[in-house]
Design a protein that fits this description.
The chain is α/β, with parallel strands linked by helices. 36% of the residues lie in helices and 20% in strands. It has a 6-stranded parallel β-sheet with strand order 2-1-3-4-5-6, with helices on both faces. A 5-stranded mixed barrel has the order 15-16-17-19-18. The chain starts with 9 loop residues before the first helix and ends with a strand.
């Protein structure tokens, strides 16, 4: 039986907003408007979390800066998916000690998935004494209260208790992009892939109510947003914990019915829950972009079982064939882990065979990075790093060839693109995205940014397309 999601009472959210207002009264008395620097590592969900933290900070009276020397408050939102991201974040946190010595009043906050890992809070407590406030993703909604308590005292605050998670609505949001927006539809994960730390640091799956999601999308469309991405660790599991269950396909249909000229995207999907009904809904709904990110991670069934992926190679390929029969021009992307503990080069060859059959448009590829606390971190891993790197290079070379071939097929076509950014490159003053999210560098008037326009594709390489406004 599915556990009902805990919802933070609106009175508690209002209490947090009251803390914001009390902080704003204090900051208004300072000589200058205080500035906050918000640094984000990791996935789109972290970006969405940072937008809510910026919302709180703006209500507290803070402006924003990228200059750490000018920042009265520095907030680093961390990632724990791979060791490299963790070490990079810790390195940057360590470097802040010098600024803290120059500006003792500076408030340094550390949050996100990394700090929620077992033992990490104690490591920060002992080795990074200049950090004032540490909290995990489940405590984000209480950020104003934590800041208020820190401003009133000289103590340090740590909020990293093990928590299955909850839903808090009504937190203000400050978005950095006026064209594209992230909308979290659910949080947490129940899959427990053997290599993944996410369920341990983000809690169990919990879904927002559809009426709250749809109201947020309507407001975004009203404000002129044109590219809206629905976020979840596994969006295909959406709604199972709601009092009145609603599946993800039904949510997509409801979002598609909202009036306006905009595109809907979503990520991430898990193959075990990606259904024919979802694919049929994507094909039928004109605002749902023809793109799917569907991680398969490895092409060998023994490795998939060791990963606890709960799908086989053939089940994955059957879903791709079904999807392509409904949406022939679908843009497909995926994640692959090279060198999972115990994987042989012969087993890795099965992954290359999947690439040849599916012909993904792009891949996110990684060499296995053990995460303490996950089952995979305790598995024997006899393959030397050099062999893993050789396999990784073979994988990327194959995907580069496929990407270049697929991009070359766009040349001569005219594609409706969302012009999302201006560029300082005089030859290509605009960038845009196809409905399938392919990057296009465009010749044309930079004033067209933010519009849907037809673009004739004139060139391509393995990374992007090139075109001109028609």
């Amino acid at each position: 039986m599915e556990k009902k999601t805990a919802v933070i009472p609106q009175s508690e959210v209002e209490r947090q907003l009251a803390f914001c207002d009390r902080i704003a009264e204090r900051t208004a008395q300072w000589e200058q408007t205080p500035l906050a620097a918000v640094i984000t590592y990791g996935c789109q969900q972290n970006e969405a979390d940072s937008e809510r933290l910026r919302g709180y900070l703006a209500r507290m009276g803070y402006g924003f800066t990228e200059d750490l020397e000018q920042a009265r408050l520095i907030l680093i939102n961390t990632c724990a998916i791979r060791e490299h991201a963790e070490q990079r974040a810790l390195g940057n946190v360590g470097a802040l000690v010098h600024g803290k010595r120059r500006h003792p009043e500076q408030l340094i906050c550390l949050c996100g998935c990394m700090v929620q890992q077992p033992g990490m809070a104690e490591k920060i407590r002992q080795s990074y004494r200049h950090v004032d406030l540490v909290f995990g993703p489940q405590a984000l909604w209480r950020f104003p209260e934590m800041v208020w308590e820190r401003l009133r005292s000289r103590g340090r605050t740590f909020q990293v208790e093990d928590d299955p998670g909850s839903i808090a609505e009504g937190i203000p949001v400050v978005r950095q992009d006026g064209i594209k927006a992230w909308v979290s539809i659910m949080y947490g994960c129940n899959n427990f892939c053997s290599y993944c730390i996410v369920p341990y640091v983000r809690g169990r799956e919990r879904s927002r109510k559809p009426e709250d999601i749809l109201a947020e999308i309507r407001e975004l469309v009203k404000d002129g947003y044109r590219d809206i991405t629905l976020l979840g660790q596994n969006v295909n599991s959406y709604g199972k914990d709601l009092a009145e269950p609603m599946d993800f396909a039904a949510l997509l249909e409801a979002a598609n019915a909202i009036p306006g000229d905009f595109l809907l995207r979503f990520m991430t999907s898990h193959p075990k829950d990606a259904t024919h009904r979802l694919f049929e809904t994507m094909a039928r709904c004109e605002k749902v972009a023809p793109v799917l990110h569907l991680p398969f991670q490895a092409g060998n069934d023994r490795i998939l079982k060791a990963m606890n992926r709960r799908h086989t190679r053939e089940e994955y390929l059957a879903k791709i064939r079904d999807l392509k029969s409904l949406i022939p021009d679908i843009v497909l992307t995926s994640d692959i882990i090279v060198g999972f503990p115990g994987e042989t080069t012969e087993e890795f060859e099965d992954t290359l065979k999947v690439l040849e059959e599916v012909r993904f448009d792009a891949l996110f590829t990684f060499i296995f990075s053990p995460r303490a606390g996950t089952p995979a971190a305790r598995m024997e891993d006899p393959m030397p790093r050099s062999e893993k790197l050789a396999n990784f290079n073979r994988l990327t070379a194959l995907q580069d060839r496929i990407s270049e071939e697929k991009h070359a097929a766009y040349v001569g076509k005219t594609v409706r693109c969302l012009l999302d950014l201006t560029s300082e490159d005089g030859a290509w003053p605009l960038t845009g995205r196809t409905p399938g999210n392919r990057l296009v560098r465009i010749q044309g008037d930079a004033a067209a940014a933010g519009q849907f326009r037809n673009v004739k594709i004139t060139g391509a390489n393995k990374w992007s397309l090139f075109g001109e406004l028609t």
